[in-house]
Design goal:
The chain is an alpha/beta fold. It has nine helices and 13 strands. Helix content is 37%, strand content 21%. Strand 9 and strand 10 form a beta hairpin. Helix 3 packs across helix 9 and helix 7 crosses helix 8. The longest helix is centred in the last third of the chain and has 25 residues. Bound molecules: zinc ion. The site of zinc ion (ZN) has 6 residues, from loops.
Length: 312
């Protein structure tokens, strides 16, 4: 039997990406600007305009959005990308506007669901996924269920402490993973090294983790050192997660995963050196597979499973 398509939506600080998803296929895509600086009402209008061309063919709507989300009630309690969004009953508002059932979940949870069912996590029931971008996020599948936690905040890998007296994180606490692996901190680390050592990166006015990753692949020593440092810090965090959750697959998603072995080797080496019971565990640390579509797939899956009455 052919499954009816579901509308999957990924709401970011800049763009709203929507797609009509049928199983593993994206049938149609739409996109709108979030216009977060113009206020909540405007952003909601933009979401509705992204849904409209897909609405007639969709059976339900799934939405992935950054922040603290009450998935049971479909309420966005807080979103760092969307100023002024506090306790917004997004599912109820969109249902009234579009006439379809709406399910909302955290964006990293959506990516994790997508990679679990269609990407790097296929066939595994104990997964931890990290997203490393502007911020550092995490989500887990434990024993075949998405881990929400008591308040829905589980998986905040970026804000776990790896150095007690480390530099201050954006959240106010010290030595968190994000303070070492977030995009702007990777770039700052590169600039500090460029000031002291010769590097092809010195010719750039603006650096991004992607540019540094490319330079590492082309043999730039400074770029490789940057990822070596970052990989060691992330590796400490990953070893902690393995000790806690015992996953058999650890997925790293986000732009810096493109640094390939220059990032993955220091992570794997650090985990090997520090994790408890390594010889008894079979785990793999791998890059994500679905790229930018993971969140859209995952949001659609969440809507599909929840609307069918399955526990996710
Ligand atoms: Zn923090």
């Amino acid at each position: 039997m052919k499954k009816e398509p579901i509308i999957g939506i990924d709401i970011g600080g800049t763009n709203i990406k929507a797609a009509l998803v049928a199983g593993r296929k994206i049938e149609k895509r739409t996109r709108a600007l979030t216009l977060a600086n113009l206020g909540r009402e405007k952003s909601i209008d933009q979401i509705i305009s992204a849904i409209e061309p897909l609405r007639k063919k969709g059976k339900a709507i799934g939405i992935g959005i950054a922040g603290i989300i009450d998935s049971k009630k479909g309420v966005v309690k807080y979103s760092p990308n969307l100023k002024g969004w506090k306790n917004v009953p997004l599912a109820r508002i969109l249902r009234a506007a579009c006439g379809l059932p709406v399910y909302v979940l955290n964006d990293v949870n959506a990516i994790c669901l997508g990679e679990w069912k269609h990407g790097a996590g296929q066939g595994h029931d104990n997964i931890f996924l990290f997203t490393i971008g502007t911020g550092v996020g995490g989500a887990a599948i434990c024993e075949g269920r998405l881990l929400f936690g008591a308040h829905g905040f589980a998986g905040e890998f970026g804000h776990t402490t790896i150095k007690l007296d480390g530099p201050k994180c954006i959240c106010g606490h010290r030595g968190h993973v994000e303070r070492y692996a977030g995009a702007k901190y990777i770039v700052a680390r590169a600039w500090r090294k460029i000031a002291r050592h010769k590097s092809s990166l010195a010719s750039y006015d603006i650096l991004t983790p992607e540019i540094i990753a490319r330079a590492a692949k082309e043999g730039d020593k400074v770029a490789r050192e940057v990822f070596d440092d970052v990989g060691k810090y992330v590796g400490i965090g990953v070893a902690n997660i393995i000790a806690l959750f015992d996953p058999d697959i650890i997925i790293i998603s986000g732009g810096i995963a493109r640094a390939g072995r220059f990032l993955f080797e220091p992570i794997r080496n650090t985990v090997r050196r520090t994790v408890l019971g390594r010889e008894h565990r079979r785990y793999r640390i791998v890059p994500a597979k679905l790229g930018d579509d993971a969140g859209t797939f995952g949001a659609a899956l969440f809507a599909e499973l929840t609307s069918a009455g399955s526990e996710v």
